[in-house]
Write a structure and sequence with these properties.
Aldehyde Dehydrogenase, Chain A, domain 2; Aldehyde Dehydrogenase, Chain A, domain 1; alpha/beta; 2 domains
Length: 487
């Protein structure tokens, strides 16, 4: 059976041939092509931005009521759900996600996010302020006020390689719900599912509301962020690229939403439930091979249980089934690309050179001669000033650091350039909440609490700028206008 070939991009409601043909997207489990993606030109990116601007200024989308936009987004979500089962194999092939993750968190959540913003699109876009006694040089009296939420304009939605469809849906959902138009640019590593998502949504919405560009190199994203027609950049990816975007668009004063890197601290106190805390620590290995910005890669363990806990982690590493993500029972699949595996291997070598103890892993599994696999890896006897504890590795690597007391745990956790996520495990709920409040991160999960779908999401410091998620995203993708008058 042949692999899918995507050689078209979406501009102004038309799928047109990519100017430079297509390039191979590699299956990270087999190192064979998973399909082919369109290679567009810089001129086509500029054309897509102009098409989005035209649709915003002259099309019907922003003039519709929120309820009307919501109905169309819900129709797009339902259409996506009907086609979702056929997208799972494609997702596994291009991302390397194991089947449960591909089904529920890659494909499944994309549909859920579209539906959620279809529902939220009908939220009131105006809020009346309380009347107050007003005084101005030209008159006085009872002053009334109104706050209006209006669309920003054209939003460039630049999604990452780890959860391409889910992340893209989380960008275009709120952007479209607020009346914006979008230009979507996926990661070069796995853009095929995002192309399908855009195809499905475009079939329901007015032409030009959703546009899709793609290419194998960074130039496509650079052209898109600089395009004068683009009013906002919504980017998820590395802090290095995020800084470059902020610098590039700063002089234009473009709105940015940036969800960037993480080096999340996972604090385990001596009174924590040992089984649940162990499962939480192992999520670096068992959840998409550690390729997630919120991964608890910096494991801070109370000194009294440090040796016992890390020994249990070493023993548990041997139970993690690594292999082809299509196979039943496989828990950990490959990294997304050869480049990503090489990055992880460089950090493993760095950790050894710094003097940390490689307690387990760090190698390519010998039973898997093909595919971009790395064993579950744990460093012990590590310090918080080591590179492996400072920089985001984005792979199945845990760095375990001991602490003596609560204050030291908080200090170690906050001693980081990142501040996206934090985790606390303790049998003392009051202490766990006290520590959670002290952490300089956008989200803290206590004792394995699941993330709330309507909670704001984003980070402190190098972990990003702004917040999205649930209703919070409506303000992020909107301009707020205040209108006042005398009654």
């Amino acid at each position: 059976m042949g692999v899918p070939v995507f050689d078209k991009i979406l501009i102004g409601g038309r799928w047109v041939a990519a100017a430079r043909g297509s390039y191979a997207v590699i299956n990270p489990a087999t190192e064979e092509p998973a399909g082919y993606a369109p290679e567009c030109s810089a001129e086509q990116v500029e054309e897509a931005a102009r098409a989005a601007r035209e649709a915003f200024e002259r099309g019907p989308w922003r003039r519709m009521s929120g309820a009307e936009r919501g109905a169309l987004l819900l129709a797009a979500a339902e259409r996506f759900r009907r086609e979702a089962p056929a997208l799972v194999e494609l997702t596994i092939a291009e991302t390397g996600a194991v089947r449960p993750v591909a089904e529920r968190l890659q494909v499944g959540q994309a549909g859920e996010r579209l539906a959620r913003y279809g529902e939220l699109a009908g939220e009131p876009a105006e809020k009346r302020l309380p009347d107050v006694e007003g005084r101005a040089p030209w008159g006085s009296g009872l002053a009334a006020g109104l706050v209006v939420r209006e669309p920003i304009g054209v939003v460039a939605c630049i999604s990452p390689f780890n959860f391409p469809m889910t992340n893209c849906a989380g960008k275009i959902g709120p952007a479209l719900a607020c009346g914006n138009t979008v230009v979507v640019k996926p990661s070069p590593s796995d853009p095929l599912g995002v192309a399908e998502l855009c195809r499905i949504v475009d079939a329901v919405l007015p032409p030009g509301v959703v546009n899709f560009v793609c290419g194998s190199g960074p130039a496509i994203g650079e052209v898109l962020t600089r395009a004068p027609e683009v009013d906002m950049i919504s980017f998820t990816g590395s802090s290095v690229v995020g800084r470059a975007i902020q610098t590039a668009v700063g002089h234009q004063m473009k709105r940015t939403l940036q969800e960037l890197g993480g080096k999340s601290a996972n604090i385990v106190f001596g009174d924590a439930d040992p089984a649940r805390a162990l499962a939480g620590a192992m999520s670096v290995w068992t959840f998409h091979a550690g390729q997630i910005c919120t991964a608890p890669t910096r494991l801070l363990v109370e000194q009294s249980i440090y040796d016992a806990f890390t020994q249990r982690l070493v023993a548990a590493a041997g139970s993690v089934t690594i292999g082809d993500p299509r196979d039943a029972g496989v828990v950990m699949g490959p990294l997304v690309s050869a480049a990503q595996r090489e990055r992880v291997e460089r950090y493993v070598a760095q950790g050894v050179a710094e003097g940390a103890t490689l307690a387990c892993g760090g190698r390519r599994p010998p039973h898997l001669p093909r595919g971009y696999y790395v064993e579950p890896t744990l460093f012990t006897a590590a310090r918080n000033d080591m590179v492996i504890a400072r920089e985001e590795i984005f792979g199945p690597v845990i760095t375990a650091i001991p602490f003596r007391h609560e204050e030291e745990a908080i200090a170690l956790a906050n001693d980081s350039e990142f501040g996206l996520y934090g985790y606390v495990w303790s049998g003392d709920t009051a202490r766990a909440l006290r520590v959670a409040r002290a952490l300089r991160t956008g989200t803290v999960q206590v004792n394995g609490s699941p993330p709330h779908p309507d909670a704001p999401f984003g980070g402190y410091k190098l972990s990003g700028v702004g917040r999205d998620g649930g209703r919070w995203a409506l303000d992020t993708y909107s301009e707020l206008k205040a209108i006042g008058w005398l009654t």
